[in-house]
Design a protein that fits this description.
The chain has about 400 residues and is α/β, with parallel strands linked by helices. About 35% of the residues lie in helices and about 15% in strands.
């Protein structure tokens, strides 16, 4: 048995190989351990250590307000004070859309270091909505440049008419206009939801800044909203994404939305808001033959920027039919609301409309097949959904 033992040189050789492999393995394990510790320390620094300074950009109408070198310990209220210095919008009138905490809701006492920065760690953009104090209670009759609302019952928008064909022929102008029109997202669209484009004045509300200024605030808000407005918006929001398109200026539109609490309501949200600068000028004819130059709301602007929506899944609600001139098939006209009418508080138009839109989204896959002009008859049970 002794003769079978390896000779001394061979024993030394095998021992050397064994020690070499064992040492290499220990070095590799130590290296991996070091890498792991470095990664943990890096993650700890990134997660727990706030950046030296932050940069926030507020988009206010067409302006961009850049606030640089902000300390992470700055509060939201202090941020609002900075915005007040540049815009004259009081903190209590400011609506900051696009800022969110990692957990919980944003309060005036919240710190910038607690914000959830979506794109880059030190940079964040948000939308500022609010009206400067000097403009907060100015009636449209005291301002210049606001569109005049006129009766549209004498306009002819029949599909195939000379004016309609002429509008289609100006497609290149509309495409150029669309490319120059920007849309600021307030709330992201939801998958699978059709689109409801809503007019404000005399469709959802009848606004008066004088009433806000001189009367009890809560009663004034209630009187300016069309009856059942919040209930209507809450119900249709379950089935549709909502967009507001108003024929007034951006600042005046902000005043209405903020004063009536429509941006903070728990039952509904708007994807974005468009004002009169997004309206396109066309020429139509009255039934007496006279031509009339006016602005319309071309849905192509929305459809080109959001391909999820098109003529097959969009409804445009308005009390003025001329606004449908470029999208006749998508327009649904409602009666105009005026709070000064004696029967105003008995108005049930929005209750009926919510019922119709509920039937539409359940029973119809292609809205273009439906004749919206008979919507009252569908709600009353006189007709079923009528194909055009």
């Amino acid at each position: 048995m002794i003769h079978n033992l390896p000779r001394k040189p061979e024993l030394i050789y095998f021992l050397s190989i064994f020690l070499f492999v064992l040492g290499k393995r220990e070095i590799m394990e130590e290296g991996n351990s070091t890498k792991g510790r470095l990664k943990e320390e890096k993650d700890k620094v990134e997660n727990n250590c706030a950046p030296i300074s932050l940069t926030l950009t507020a988009k206010w109408g067409k302006q961009r307000i850049v606030l640089e070198n902000l300390d992470p310990s700055t509060t939201i209220l202090e941020l609002k004070d900075m915005l007040t210095a540049q815009t004259n919008i009081l903190p209590k009138r400011q609506k900051l859309i696009g800022l969110a905490l990692k957990t919980g809701s944003v309060e005036d006492s919240s710190l910038l270091s607690d914000l959830n920065f979506k794109k880059k760690r030190h940079l964040q953009e948000f939308i500022l909505m609010g009206t400067p104090e000097k403009e907060i209670f100015v009636d449209p009759s005291d301002k210049t440049g606001l569109p005049v609302v006129v009766d549209d019952f004498n306009f002819d928008f029949n599909a195939g008419s000379k004016e309609w064909i002429q509008h289609v022929a100006t497609g290149e102008n509309l495409r150029n206009f669309t490319e120059k029109t920007s849309v600021n997202i307030m709330n992201e669209p939801r998958d699978g939801k059709p689109l409801l484009v809503l007019d404000l004045d005399h469709t959802l509300l009848d606004f008066s800044s004088k009433q806000l200024q001189h009367s009890n605030f809560s009663n004034s808000v209630s009187n300016m909203k069309r009856p059942h407005m919040d209930e209507f918006l809450t119900n249709v929001y379950r089935h549709y994404d909502l967009v507001v398109w108003s024929q007034t200026s951006w600042r005046w539109l902000e005043t209405k939305l903020v004063a009536l609490g429509m941006l903070a309501h728990p039952g509904y949200k708007f994807c974005f808001v468009l004002d009169k600068t997004s309206m396109f000028e066309v020429i139509s004819s009255k039934k007496d033959g006279n031509s009339y130059r006016h602005h319309v709301k071309p849905l192509q602007i929305i459809w080109s920027k959001f391909p999820r929506w098109n003529v097959h899944n969009t409804v445009h609600i308005d009390d003025v039919s001329r606004n449908f001139a470029l999208n006749l098939k998508s327009g649904l006209k409602v009666s105009a609301y005026s709070r000064k009418r004696s029967s105003a508080r008995k108005d049930v138009e929005l209750l009926c409309l919510a019922r119709y839109l509920g039937i539409l989204v359940i029973d119809c896959k292609d809205f273009q097949e439906i004749d919206f002009s008979s919507w009252h008859d569908v709600v009353s049970g006189k007709y079923s959904l009528k194909k055009s």
